[in-house]
Amino acid sequence: MRSAWNDREAAELVERYAAEGVGEDLALRVYTTRLLGSEPRLVLHGGGNTSVKSRARDVTGTELDVLYVKGSGWDMGTIEPPGLPAVQLDPLLALAGIDALSDEDMVNLQRRNLLDSKAPNPSVETLLHAWVPRTFIDHTHANAALALTDQPHGEEICREVYSDRAAIVPYIMPGFDLAKAAKAAADAHPRAEGLVLLKHGLFTFGDTAQEAYELMIEFVSLAEARIERGRRTVFAAAAAPGAVASASEIAPAIRGMLAIRREGDGAEVERFILEHRVSPAILAYVGGDELSRYSQVGTVTPDHAIRTKPLPVVLPAPPAGDLTAWTGRARAAVDAYGEAYTTYFERHNPRYGGMKRMLDPSPRVVLVPGVGLFASGRDARAAAAAADLAETTVDVITDAESMDRFESIAESELFDIEYWSLEQAKLAGAREKTLARHVVVVTGGAGAIGRATAAAFRTVGAEVAFFDLPGPALDDAAAAEAGLAVPCDVTDDASVARAFDIVAARFGGVDILVSNAGAAWRAPMADVTDDVLRESFELNFFAHQRVTRVAVRMMRAQGTGGCLLFNVSKQAVNPGPDFGPYGLPKAATLGLVRQYAIEHGWEGIRSNGVNADRIRSGVLTEEMISARSEARGVSEDAYMRGNLLGREVRADDVARAFISLALARATTGAILTVDGGNVAAALR
Ligand code: ZN
Question: I need a labelling partner for 192 at 20 to 30 A (CA). Which of 231, 311, 382, 670 fits?
Fold first, then answer.
């Protein structure tokens, strides 16, 4: 691993922060913290922290010794000075004299000594940073260090690699006890340049930010060199599974297996968002004939357990073709995982007087020979984070197995981390939004109604895929709402299939389809050509059927119900002159809404539509609006407000109607009008 230190960049940051009143030592602390945080082989999703001991003034002008230490909730790769809150050092040093301290008391004491009462909680490793008497301290969960320590002779190997340059600390859960052990090790080796925390990570010390950082890079490089020297072939491949199904084919079924069906009226489902990952390293790992051994040992560093659970589930390789038998075996594996998880909880909860509350028993990482890995989370971000940790796990275990055998901490220690009260409090966090954990596909996603609808679904917590023809409009729409841009021509079968494959690999499946793409064709029926009529039917009827058919297959594979939403049109029930080529296929689409409602209600798939009227930039072009207002002898504005409420209907109104229908758990086969009130278009 190479140092990314750059004198010019460092100086620039010092200068920039000086203008804001930030001292040089904190500015450089920010700089190297970012360098560490930008390297995923060193730090991932909260797995690391840094500190610097300095002086600061309080409001009375009194100068105090402080520890600037990483605060929770900040990403090291993008940290700013407020992400390293100042804690008064003396009260922290005084704690070294007591024998025991609970996590809650420790957090309280740290908070109480913050110079800024609104600052984030200092890291749980704050006391360790405080008690080691060095100015700059860096801590990472470097992959290479984990690969060395996560094996039976890890300690011996580390002594050989680092000799007396690093003191070795046995595995202890982060907190007061670990800080004590680290202090003892550092005190016993006053010339040590760092610490190796077995099965956890590395610490390095320095008088300057550059020294501590470059020492970390050197320590990691030494570990990498040792791994290369000891490497032998790993992972004899299991019997080749032959042709396997694709990730997209099996993702919806896996997503359905992972979902928690709450007891009650059967409609309460706790879904997960899935993300698929594959690479040559992952395929070698999941294809190894000892996968069921090395994947079932534990995490590579303890804090992974919070996001990935201690163990992944291993599924059989899915054969290409008929997946019925595979689905049954895979479901049995997931069920067995859930049972084993429950007994694991019951084995360890008594140590806490039975006071812990069991988390859901659904695996967060799914290993599939021939296909790769899937990670799950309550949203796409959490799934991606779990996927990153799972990929790191593959790398570290591969390296440990290339030297000897992978070893983790004990099951009871994994439980202590997974059910750590501080972490549980963090994860419990904010209440989930109404459509969190749901995946929504919006066709015509780049148009006015599509964009408004997608934005509305994002606001209530759903993950959204924008389907539309490729181009800047699609990319802009998806980027603006942090959704997934999926190029799709809804009039083409292959394009639709590919688009849903992308959604399945990225999110695991689909829960809500908003079939919105459409366009208006105008002509009197006596004059319209069959070609034009067919073209309109292709987009305004067959495209709805084409995307719905694929979405319903995916929903059935998930087995967790679903919601189909169609943008029909007032034209379907209250046709206007010259709009036959548009109204006729929309009338057929209205029939489609009801047909799906009838055929899939039994499996919890609801089907509803919205009849909107007179939306600017919907199917009505400015030219059509002016033609119609002229024909009626009113202004364009009066035409747009020509309804019972006298209000212009906007794309947002249509979006809200889709959201209402998505939430209406007892409504199917219904059409909601969004037209400002139009008695002639009322349904009965
Ligand atoms: Zn750590």
Answer: 231
Intra-chain end-to-end CA distance of the chain, in Å: 71
CA distance 370 to 19: 55
* Residue 573 · residue 529 · CB < 8 Å: no
Backbone region of residue 63 per phi and psi (left: phi > 0; alpha: psi in -120 to 50; beta: other values): beta
Task: Decide: 226 and 148 in contact? Cβ < 8 Å.
Answer: yes
Q: Which amino acid is at 361?
A: P
Query: pTM (2 decimals)?
Result: 0.93
Burial class for 556, CB neighbours closer than 10 Å (0-12, 13-18, 19+): middle
| Side-chain-facing half-sphere of 558: CA atoms under 13 Å | 34
Report the b/e string of 358-396 with b at 16+ CB within 10 A.
eebbbbbbbbbbbbbbbbbbbbbebbbbbbbbbbbbbbb
Calculate how far, in angstroms, residue 123's C-alpha sits from the geometric centre of ligand 1: 10
Q: Rounded CA gap, 85 and 74, in Å? A: 11
Residue owning tokens 């499946």: 509
Can you read off the two tokens belonging to residue 607? 């089907």
Calculate the dihedral angle through the C-alpha atoms of 571, 575, 581, 583, rounding to the nearest 10 degrees: 30
Q: 70 with 121: CB under 8 angstroms?
A: no
Amino acid type, 74: W
> How far, in Å, is the centroid of ligand 1 from the Cα of 141?
6
| Residue 267: predicted pLDDT | 57
Which residue carries 């200068």 as its tokens?
A: 15
Compute the distance from residue 174 Cα to the ligand 1 centre, in Å. Answer: 7
Q: Are strands 671-674 and 484-487 parallel, antiparallel or unpaired?
A: unpaired
Residue 607, judged by CB atoms within 10 A of its CB (0-12, 13-18, 19+), counts as buried
Distance from C-alpha of 560 to C-alpha of 269, rounded to nearest angstrom: 7
Q: How many Å apart are CA 564 and CA 483, to the nearest integer?
A: 19
Count Cα atoms within 13 angstroms, Cβ side, for 48.
32
Query: Residue 142: pLDDT above 90?
Result: yes
> For residue 428, what pLDDT band results from cuts at 50, 70 and 90?
low
CA 12 to ligand 1 centroid distance, Å? 30
Taking the centre of ligand 1 as the mean of its atom positions, its distance from the CA of residue 432, in whole angstroms, is: 28
Cβ-contact 276, 251 below 8 angstroms = yes
Q: How far does the centroid of ligand 1 lie from the alpha carbon of residue 139, in Å?
A: 7
* Top-ranked range on mean pLDDT: pick from 429-438, 472-481, 504-513, 615-624: 504-513
Distance CA 149, CA 351 (A): 28
Question: What pLDDT does 262 receive?
Answer: 80
- Structure tokens belonging to residue 633: 């002898």
Provide the mean pLDDT of the chain: 93
**pLDDT tens digits for range 315-337:** 999 999 999 999 999 999 999 99
Mean pLDDT of the region 361-388? 96
Kindly give the distance from the C-alpha atom of residue 210 to the centroid of ligand 1, in angstroms, as a whole number.
20
Contact 355, 345 (CB under 8 A): no
How are beta strands 63-69 and 166-169 bridged, if at all?
A: unpaired
Confidence of residue 58 (pLDDT cuts 50, 70, 90): confident
For range 625-645, the mean pLDDT: 87
Q: Is the pLDDT reported for residue 141 higher than 80?
A: yes
